[in-house]
Fold this protein.
Amino acid sequence: MSNRPWFTRRERVFHLLDECWCEGRRSHQQLKGHVRRATGTACSPKLIVAWKRDRHIPLTCHKEPV
């Protein structure tokens, strides 16, 4: 785990989701799995939806437009 001082779990999870998304792993399952591996606990689907809204990612699309 990095030494970056995380202020909230939500902030840490959002950072992990950003990492996963940038690597091209975009399905709900891949996003949840990435967070579970890094933190030891799964994140809720609601948290993923909140992250997508925060990052202005359309909720229905998991891939970038070609």
Remarks:
- Residues 9-54 form one domain.
- The two ends are 34 Å apart (CA to CA).
